[in-house]
Amino acid sequence: MTTIQNKIDFAIVFTVDKANPNGDPLNGNRPRQDYDGHGEVSDVAIKRKLRNRLQDAGESILVQSDERRADGYRSIYDRVSGNEDVAPYFAKNNKAANKEELVEMFASKAWYDVRAFGQVFAFKGTDVSVGVRGPVSIHAATSISPVEITSMQITKSVNSTTNEKDPSKKTSDTMGMKHRVDFGVYLFCGSINPQLAERTGFSDEDSEKLKQAFITLFANDSSSARPDGSMEVNKVFWWEHNSKLGQFSSAKVHRSIKIKLNADDKIPNSIDDYTITVEQLEGLPVKEYDGL
């Protein structure tokens, strides 16, 4: 497989309907907002969903969620130690002069997410610290309009433990809070750098798999905070430049997307309340895909 030869830019529009797309643990797990009230989803959360989708598709992933492990390893270090190509270079008796380069090469070959997003390999008790820069960069997602957040108090009315004083009676109810975004249209952008792709071996086939992961981003991602159907990918925009540097900067390409609320005095509750257009940049066609 050959690595990608030309720069790629992309943008994804998705909706959140009565769900918590990315809770902030420092704020009681409320959905993230900026100072102007616009909703946010961190790039880390987006990459987690991408890793899950790619793992579902059969790709080898280094940074796996513990509850979705596809192997017997419980940590990144264990997974690295179990790889016969990568593990020897973390041994203290390995004196290879170019072992950092070898770690980058073998780790990128072994795991899709290293090949795409990069990874820092620095473990206690080893004398190797390797930073792999991945070609895929992703911005945080931000809502087009400020979002309204609804909070509700919930009650847990079951026995987590047996009542020690009187086992025939149930324990006291416990209270909690649950938060959601009522409705929001979010946008995030990113790019794929061909120079970095040459280092990690990120190929055209890999870029196609990434595109498909964007289109199905929220499949198999439901939880009590994100019920099935509450988050939906609406549009995926994909630009393939004709050179490694690209005809235009990523900032200009990403600005070509215009998402406008149809009526300023209306509280949006549907993607139909917005008009999405893309300014055509000379010599740079855009491919548009609907989410599944």
Automatic annotation (TrEMBL):
Source taxon at top rank: Bacteria
GO biological process, one term: maintenance of CRISPR repeat elements
InterPro entries, A to Z: Cas7_Csh2/Csh2 (IPR006482), CRISPR-assoc_prot_Cas7/Csd2 (IPR013418)
A Pfam match: Cas_Cas7
Protein known as: Type I-C CRISPR-associated protein Cas7/Csd2
Organism: Paenibacillus crassostreae
Organism classification: Bacteria, Bacillati, Bacillota, Bacilli, Bacillales
